[in-house]
Amino acid sequence: MIKHIVCFKLKDNSEEECKKAAEILRSMDGNVPLIRDIEVGCDFLHSERSYDVILQVTLDSADVLDAYQNDEYHCNVVKAHMHRVAESSVAIDYEI
Asked: CB-hemisphere CA count at 13 Å for 49?
């Protein structure tokens, strides 16, 4: 199993924009069948080192992670939106 985690720093980190980004990320549940589990959250501290939104996805294997990265819904809806609204992101992928 693979855990894929991405933290996003948004250009506009208002509560409204954070919630919208979180909704877009959560919309993968049911639209990206490769996902075994998904968790999305918004930061509430807003410290200097904070990121604004986190995505955690559990996938079956590294091969499934590769397929997920090219999934049509993931690319055309989720990545497209997040690339428009994110200032930066960091990611980690590890075996669980």
From this structure: 0
Residue 82 token pair: 């997040």
Residue 66: other Cβ atoms inside 10 A: 11
Closest to 24 (Cα-Cα) out of 40, 7, 5? 40
- pTM, to two decimals: 0.94
What CATH number is associated with residue 87? 3.30.70.100
Contact 24, 78 (CB under 8 A): yes
Structure confidence at residue 51 (pLDDT): 98
State the Cα–Cα distance between residues 27 and 64, nearest whole angstrom: 19
Strand order in the sheet with 37-42: 37-42, 53-59, 2-10, 86-95
pLDDT given at position 95 = 97
CA angle 92, 94, 96 (to 5 degrees): 140
| Domains identified in the chain, total number | 1
b/e burial code for range 33-45 (CB count within 10 A of at least 16 → b): ebbeebebebbee
